[in-house]
Amino acid sequence: MKNIIVSDIFGLTDELVELSARIASHPIILDPYMGMKNLFSNEQSAYQYFTENVGLEEYASFVFSNLSKLQEPVSIIAFSVGAAAVWRHSDKLKPSHIKHAHLFYGSQIRNMLNVKPNIPINIILPRLEAHFSVASMAESLNKLDNVSVEQCESLHGFMNKLSCNFNPLDCEAYVSKLRQLGN
Q: pLDDT digits over 1-17, tens only?
């Protein structure tokens, strides 16, 4: 089975390539910059570049376009804005082509709770977020069909070595978990 990795605002980085290879064999990586590596100095510069040059809606359309062309079952693993991009059109994806999706800390999902996914989605939320209640978001998501929610002890970005919230212990635990699930 193919594995699709959907990047966060940092896009395609050596760190994401390394993480992806640890999760799955020969994954396909989708990123907001069409494979162009951006060497952002920090999260703020990555966020600013993403919002000024791409935006969530454009990224979501790009991700949906790529996922809707699939002809065989895949597993999706997405991070942050990539998770929100997958979620945005998860009600239009073909269940026969998506085995499951694991969406890590997609905080913008909270603004799209009207989406009713028709593919199995596991959402991994951080311990807390500065601008909203993670518990309230989890409660709303837990009411939806095809959605399971888990909350970890780490913060937003814990899977990304470039994030100030990178947590090597939790990252390794989720890499192991994803590998055991057959991604």
A: 789 999 999 999 999 99
Locate tokens 């992806």: which residue?
A: 20
- Position 115: which residue type? V
Residue 141 and residue 109 in contact, taking contact as beta carbons nearer than 8 Å? yes
Pick from 112, 173, 172, 105: which is nearest to 144 by CA?
A: 112
Q: Where are the beta strands (DSSP E) in 37-104?
A: 74-79, 98-104
- Contact (CB, 8 A) for 32 and 11: yes
> What is the tens place of the pLDDT at every residue in 122-148?
999 999 999 999 999 999 999 999 999
For 10, phi then psi, to 5°, come to -75, -20
Rounded CA separation 110/84 (Å): 9
2-6, strands of its sheet edge to edge = 28-30, 2-6, 74-79, 98-104, 121-125, 147-151
